[in-house]
Amino acid sequence: MTIDYENRYAIGHNEAKGFDTAQLRENFLADDLFQQDKIKLVYTHYERLIVGGIVPVNQTLSLDAIDPLKAQHFLDRRELGLINIGGSGVVVVDGQEYFLDNKEALYVGAGNKLVTFRSLDSASPAKFYLNSAPAHKSYPTKKVTKAEANVLELGSQETSNERSIYQLIINGVVDTCQLQMGMTSLKPGSVWNTMPAHQHDRRMEAYLYFDLAEDQAVAHFMGEPKQTRLIWTANEQAVISPAWSIHSGAGTSNYTFIWGMAGENLDYDDMDKYAPTELR
């Protein structure tokens, strides 16, 4: 079978306060998304967001419906966002081919029936990272390159958080129902992301860390602002962030991460910020 999936039920903030390290990782970390010739999905009960990885090496992989969707096709009632973090690949959406190079994105609207994936070179396979959220309307499928993204330059060397934010699948660039995705790259010498930290009570988020050397790691901070916890993450691992949680990180070197959001609105700046001195 080429699709593996797991269910992650929602955890409340009061419950999470008592979790040890193993429980935090079991509930919020996705550490094995990218497996050769597999589609690996994590179906979360936070806004029903699905995170996943697709690595076609020796065969073409098809994104079929999984049992929790109770649907004939994966996108019958969902929209899909993809960002390729590997070698060049091809996504075919109901017969239409889209070529995605490294760090290029594709939005696929609800109602499309057959979505398949293949790599152009099995020696350097594509690695498609996906986020999928429920959708009430079908919007057109659209490819977005880094050059077409809305780019924000934030932070500074002095605060170790100089970074470029590429808003790829976001309101104003792509029409979506609720899904938003983008990519943040830390400059050499910078390690902090999303600082000052914030929550957004009207939507959840997921972070995928990558472009991280195998002997390096990122400490991902989560939890309520007055009850923070951390999860150590390695390259190509993702953290699921509920609406009640902050989401911030500090690496032992610079790195890149993909952020994806789903929830009540499409306002990127809809967040409640907390100064470093307010965190506990």
UniProtKB/TrEMBL annotation:
Binds 1 zinc ion per subunit. Transmembrane segments: none annotated. One of its GO terms (molecular function) is zinc ion binding. The keyword Isomerase applies. InterPro entries: KduI (IPR007045), KduI/IolB_isomerase (IPR021120), KduI_N (IPR027449), RmlC-like_jellyroll (IPR014710), RmlC_Cupin_sf (IPR011051). Keywords: Isomerase, Metal-binding, Zinc. GO terms for biological process: D-galacturonate catabolic process; D-glucuronate catabolic process; pectin catabolic process. CDD domains: cupin_KduI_C (cd20491), cupin_KduI_N (cd20294). Catalyzes the isomerization of 5-dehydro-4-deoxy-D-glucuronate to 3-deoxy-D-glycero-2,5-hexodiulosonate. Belongs to the KduI family. This is 4-deoxy-L-threo-5-hexosulose-uronate ketol-isomerase. It comes from Thalassotalea euphylliae.
